[in-house]
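Might I ask for a little of your time on a matter of protein folding? Here, with my thanks, is the record as I have it:
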Amino acid sequence: MTDALDLVTVVDHIKKGGIIAYPTEGVWGLGCDPFNEKSVYKILALKSREVDKGLVLVAANLDQIKPLLHTLPQSARNLLESSCPGPDTWLIPDTDQVIPQWIKGNFDTVAIRVSKHPLVKSLCERVGLLVSTSANPSSREPARSQKEVELYFGDQDIFIVPGELGGQIKPSRIRDLLSQEVIRD
């Protein structure tokens, strides 16, 4: 795993509005501060992705998404608590408008995964929520190695955080927290 000194550099880059590429559970991701609109739009441009589709966020723990949880029914909170950290990305209602629309796209929910990947957890512990969208241009396969990230985005201003994938075979499953419907398997 990246040592603490390197993480200081990565965190500083994110806080200054920079974009990172980093290994997640199953594929490499592109990330930034989700509350920095300029950074989010840079990622969308890199991917040729419409803002309407929304983006996934990652967190180190449930405390980081506490503002989204107080309006949930107890059964939904229990499900979330029992499954986190874990491989599922949950669509959580954002009734208090805590998360910017440029993250949610055309949705009233926010897609959040509480990661168990050591590097992702460590980054989120230092910067808070982080955008986690697959590192690939739209319609291309997600990058599964640092080399693939470099092939896709090598000439862009992206800080590539070295590390290993977390052992999943594909991107995270997306489920609606209230209905438990699987959106992406």
Observations:
- The CA atoms of residues 58 and 113 lie 5 Å apart.
- Strands lie at 19-23, 28-31, 56-59, 88-93, 109-114, 130-131, 133-134, 158-160, 173-176, 182-184.
- The first helix runs from residue 4 to 15.
- The mean pLDDT is 94.
